[in-house]
Amino acid sequence: MVLFFTSTAVSPSAIIYMGKDKVENEDLIKYAWPQDVWFHVDKLSSAHVYLRMPEGMAWEAIPEVLLNDCAQLVKANSIEGNKKDNLTIIYTPGDNLKVCDRRCGGNGWLVMKLNI
Fold first, then answer.
1. Which residues of the chain have pLDDT under 70?
2. Considering its fold, how many domains does the chain have in total?
């Protein structure tokens, strides 16, 4: 079951969605819209959180309050990450994502980092 959230930190409000497990996370990667932005705890397991970008917003210019909503949600849904005081959240547009096995190696994504 995909979980949906509404962030009212911005106007108009933004839709955020999240997978509940690994299988669902892989399905979300396959069906993400190119303009969706994916969030994940760097170097730890965590939920995959997606921001459905509001019309006219560039991913490089997401307001800090909205970044914080997504970052806090991904941190809260990381078994190890939610116990840490300081960690890095990575995010990238959905069209940079692909499902692959462990043999893929480096991802080559354009990734932004956010320390929370």
1. 98-116
2. 1
